[in-house]
Structure to design on (450 residues):
C-alpha cells in the first residue's frame, strides 16, 4: 500500500512504524522470560525499546538504500544509456554506442534483482540485434533502390544476403523470355544445372520455399558445391503472387533459427520488389533500343554504340570496320508481293545475318531497308570479307510466301578506321555510305570498299 510517491520513503515509514510497534510490544513480551513488571513496564524501558526499533528500522533503510538502491542506480544509468542511444539512432546516429558490452548489467545474484538484470540484458541484446537488422535493411534497401541493372543488382544483392545471414553459397535465377536464367552465383561449381534442377522447378511452380537438412552421408545431386552443406534453402522470389525467380542458398551448419529465417524473409521480399523493377526497366530499355520488327538495335541506340566503339578505337589505336548495306529493289518487292512480304524479307535478313557476324559486332536497322554493321577490331580487309559473307548468304537464301519464292540481294559499302583518315565517326559513316552508293550505281549485289 503506497503512502507517498517514493518507494524508499514508504519503506522508511513502514520500517520505522514497524520498529515503533515492536518497541511497544517488546516490554510485554519480556514478561514471558521473567522480567519484573516494574522494569518491563517502566517508561525508560519502553523508551529504550521504541528507540531500538526506530534504530533497527533506520539501519534497514540505510542498508536497503545501499544494497538495493545502488543496483537500481546502475539499472537506471544503463536504461538512460539505452534511451540516449535510441534518441541518437532516431536522428540518424550510430547505434554502436550501446553495444551489449557497454550496456549489459553485471549479474551477481540469483534473486529478483539478478532476474531483473538478466531480463534487462536480454532486452539490450534484442534491441541491439533489432537495430543492427534495421541498419542492415536500410543499407540493403538503399543498394537495391539505387540499382536498376539486373546483373549488378543481383550480384550486389546476393553478396549482401550471404554476408548478413552468414550463409556460405548461393545463386539467383530469374525468369526471362520463358527461361529460368542464372544471373549471379557464388560458391557453386556448376550453377548452370540449377535452371533444370527438379527441386528448383518444383519451388518455382508451387511458390513454396523449402529448407532441407542434408545428412552427412548423402551426396548433393546437381548443386555441386565447393563444400558439403548441412542446409539448403530454396525460396521463390514472388511479386504480386507471381514467381519471378528463385534463390538458392546453402549453409555449412544447420540454419533453422526463427529470427535468422525471419531476417532472410525480409531480405527476399525487398529483393523481389527490386528485381521486378529492374526487369521492367530492362524491358523498357530493350523496347527503347530495339527495332520492333527486326529485333535489331534501332538507329538511335545503334549510333550511340557506334560512337562508343569509335572512341574506343581512337583511344586504343585499334581498328573499327563499318558496313552499310541495303536490299536491292526492295520497293519492287513491296509493290509486287505487298508490305507483309516486305516485312518478312526484313525479318529474314535480320535473322540470317546475326549468326554470321562475330561476337561483339553490332548490327542496327539504319532505316527502311538499310542496315549498318559495326565491327570492332576489324581492318578494311576483314570488313570487306565480312561484307562478302553477308552478301553471299543473302544471295543464296530465299523467303517463301504462299507459292512464291522471294529472292533478294544486297549492295554493301565498307569503310574502316584508321585506314580511312577521318576526323570523326560521322566521316567514317559517310565513307561507308558513299561506298554503298557506288555498289548500287555499278550494278548492285556487290561490296565496295570506300
Amino acid at each position: 500500500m503506497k503512502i507517498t510517491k517514493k518507494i524508499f520513503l514508504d519503506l522508511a515509514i513502514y520500517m520505522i512504524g514497524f520498529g515503533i510497534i515492536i518497541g511497544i510490544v517488546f516490554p510485554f513480551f519480556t514478561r514471558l522470560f521473567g522480567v519484573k513488571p516494574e522494569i518491563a513496564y517502566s517508561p525508560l524501558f519502553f523508551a529504550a525499546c521504541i528507540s531500538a526499533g526506530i534504530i533497527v528500522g533506520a539501519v534497514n533503510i540505510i542498508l536497503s538504500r545501499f544494497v538495493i538502491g545502488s543496483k537500481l542506480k546502475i539499472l537506471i544509468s544503463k536504461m538512460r544509456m539505452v534511451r540516449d542511444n535510441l534518441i541518437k539512432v532516431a536522428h540518424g546516429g550510430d547505434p554502436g554506442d550501446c553495444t551489449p558490452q557497454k550496456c549489459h548489467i553485471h549479474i551477481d545474484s540469483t534473486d529478483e534483482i539478478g532476474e531483473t538484470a538478466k531480463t534487462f540484458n536480454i532486452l539490450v541484446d534484442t534491441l541491439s540485434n533489432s537495430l543492427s537488422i534495421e541498419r542492415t535493411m536500410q543499407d540493403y534497401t538503399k543498394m537495391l533502390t539505387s540499382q536498376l541493372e539486373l546483373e549488378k543488382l543481383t550480384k550486389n544483392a546476393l553478396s549482401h544476403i550471404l554476408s548478413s545471414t552468414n550463409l556460405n553459397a548461393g545463386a539467383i535465377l530469374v525468369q526471362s523470355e520463358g527461361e529460368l536464367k542464372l544471373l549471379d552465383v557464388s560458391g557453386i561449381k556448376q550453377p548452370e544445372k540449377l535452371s533444370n534442377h527438379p527441386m528448383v522447378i518444383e519451388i518455382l511452380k508451387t511458390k513454396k520455399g523449402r529448407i532441407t537438412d542434408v545428412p552427412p552421408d548423402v551426396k548433393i545431386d546437381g548443386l555441386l558445391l565447393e563444400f558439403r552443406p548441412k542446409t539448403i534453402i530454396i525460396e521463390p522470389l514472388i511479386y504480386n503472387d507471381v514467381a519471378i525467380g528463385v534463390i538458392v542458398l546453402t549453409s555449412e551448419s544447420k540454419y533453422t533459427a526463427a529470427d535468422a529465417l525471419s531476417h532472410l524473409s525480409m531480405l527476399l521480399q525487398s529483393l523481389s520488389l527490386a528485381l521486378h523493377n529492374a526487369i521492367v526497366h530492362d524491358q523498357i530499355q530493350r523496347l527503347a533500343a530495339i527495332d520492333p520488327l527486326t529485333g535489331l538495335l534501332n538507329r538511335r541506340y545503334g549510333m550511340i554504340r557506334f560512337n562508343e566503339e569509335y572512341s574506343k578505337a581512337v583511344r586504343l589505336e585499334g581498328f573499327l570496320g563499318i558496313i552499310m548495306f541495303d536490299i536491292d529493289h526492295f520497293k519492287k518487292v513491296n509493290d509486287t508481293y505487298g508490305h507483309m512480304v516486305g516485312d518478312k524479307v526484313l525479318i529474314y535478313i535480320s535473322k540470317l545475318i546475326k549468326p554470321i557476324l562475330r561476337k561483339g559486332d553490332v548490327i542496327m536497322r539504319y532505316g527502311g531497308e538499310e542496315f549498318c554493321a559495326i565491327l570492332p577490331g576489324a581492318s578494311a580487309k576483314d570488313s570487306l570479307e565480312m561484307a562478302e559473307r553477308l552478301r553471299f548468304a543473302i544471295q543464296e537464301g530465299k523467303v517463301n510466301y504462299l507459292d512464291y519464292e522471294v529472292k533478294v540481294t544486297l549492295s554493301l559499302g565498307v569503310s574502316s578506321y584508321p585506314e580511312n583518315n577521318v576526323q570523326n565517326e560521322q566521316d567514317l559513316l559517310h565513307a561507308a555510305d558513299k561506298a554503298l552508293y557506288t555498289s548500287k550505281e555499278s550494278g548492285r549485289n556487290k561490296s565496295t570498299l570506300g
